[in-house]
Amino acid sequence: MDILNKTWYLESMTLAGKSEHLFPATLVVGEQKITGKGGCNNFFGKYELVDDKITISKIGATRMYCQEASKFETKYLRALESVTSYAKKENRLTLSWAGGELIFSSNPLETTDQDTEGTIHDIKWQLKAIDMRGVARDVRKTKAGISLLVGKNKVSGNGGCNDYFGQLRMEGNRFIVSDIGATEMYCDDSSKQEMTYLRLLEKVTTFRLAGDQLILSFPDGTLTFGQK
Length: 228
Fold this sequence. Notes:
The chain has helices at 70-82, 191-201, and strands at 7-15, 18-19, 26-29, 33-37, 42-50, 53-61, 85-89, 92-97, 100-105, 124-132, 135-137, 147-150, 154-158, 163-171, 174-182, 206-210, 213-218, 221-226. The chain has 228 residues and is mostly beta strands.
């Protein structure tokens, strides 16, 4: 079984259709038990694996308290105990149940000593391309364009119709957007594209710079921005 005895790094957690704010978390599926890091504490538990079905139970953990990560950790461990099935494709493991999914990568998220302040911050990035599952989608041109401004602990911009804003957590090359809100105008030619963009923005897990482009990656695609 090629999911066993390797460290899986959490890339996204979706609960009841909402992408959750992440802290660094891992999962190791051993021969007879699971272990991992919940964002604060180390955890352990039992599991049963039959075909593509998996159930996880009796999770225990160490008892450190981490002010920022503890709420996330509680959600993550509860999610693990809700899992009913799994799927592996290339370097990704997806654990799912009726109310959500956890997506892991076998590749550790990179860390960087690069000072991103001034390199991606306070620049008006314009969306150039959306790639989903290897298929490039055209970005419909609108009067305002689709923009992104990366601030300290927050993002803002225009989705092609409405102004939006959200919370941001960056650590190394992690780029986690949550709690997106927006104004409520309706634009006949761009509202559908705007909804897609904001939904994908909340799925983003990492960023990288490629020349004058900013590339935000999520489990099955990328958002590519330019400075003009």
